[in-house]
Amino acid sequence: MVMNNAREQLIETTAALVEAQGYHATGLSQILKESGTPKGSLYYYFPAGKEELAAEAIAHTAQLLVKRATEALAADDDPAAAIPEFIRTIAHYVEASDFAAGGPLITVALESVTCSERLNLACQDAYRRLQEVFAAKLQAGGYSATQATHLASFVTAAIEGGTLLSRTAHSCAVLRQIADDLGVFLHIMPKS
Amino acid sequence: MVMNNAREQLIETTAALVEAQGYHATGLSQILKESGTPKGSLYYYFPAGKEELAAEAIAHTAQLLVKRATEALAADDDPAAAIPEFIRTIAHYVEASDFAAGGPLITVALESVTCSERLNLACQDAYRRLQEVFAAKLQAGGYSATQATHLASFVTAAIEGGTLLSRTAHSCAVLRQIADDLGVFLHIMPKS
DNA sequence: GTCTATACGGTGATAGAC
DNA sequence: GTCTATCACCGTATAGAC
Question: What domain range includes position B106?
């Protein structure tokens, strides 16, 4: 499909800013300034305004997240090794951004609960798709479908919580510890 | 110590609103309206304005969190039983608020990283104190000091991540699963 | 069809009345 | 000391020029 450049630019800039600052903290003027897009274009491409733009940005983020996770998890056949390694990659990413990025959904996910059903649904969908990637990997590693789904939730929660604590503390020690702990946990967990 | 009523009221209202909506989404006018405090009082008690008020609200939240966690964990001598039970209590709380509350620090913790050092420090301190409660419980349960600290981080991350996913999904199934999983994990984890 | 200029409401903050 | 009335600014959204 043909992608309009201004539209794509707008979505990517929004995704990046929202990841760093959150939804309410990110103003349209900042988005327009950083993306180099004129104000009117925004309402041409996104008639419903900021909320619609943010929802598209979340969908874009979800797509990227699924792609990255899938690729990273393919590096090792054993999910108990691949998942911790993926988490260490996230830790690198968080550090490289000076703790301004990582967990691109966290803030919006929480803000959206009390402010926008549209955004909330976009976040639900994003997390669901991410968990499916983990679940597929776990199932391929020998876990039953229900157990894989179950563990995928646990892994996602640990990653999100770990990213949150790491960004807050300006140190990814927690995230790396979690990677190790999850490795142990997955090794021990019986496959039934 | 004598606590000024208007000041306390302001702090508690801010803590509640910020927990539900986040820092940037919560306006001063809403805080004043809900607390029934006149506008001028705010700047008398908190000369530095919203940021100072929010920092005090975070400190207040931390105090409450530590108190609740300590009390809840005292219910069972075994940390591997007490911690999951505490998490189930959180799940109740999240549901009772219709997913508008729970994880009172998450949003501010993340927003603060790129916006306010003062708030960020308040959040760091809050998480540190909460983790100390878990660590103390784990150490009393037989873990070494270093292992207790280590596991306390993992527990905190799992709780925060689980609360995030539960609020987003409008279902505490994830949080309850995490409670069970952590119970298993702590039972298996060798005490050294 | 694409964008510039403008409107309007609400934000955080303050000066000064009681 | 406590609060009311007002400010300057930035937020999102739109109308209409090219």
Answer: 5-188
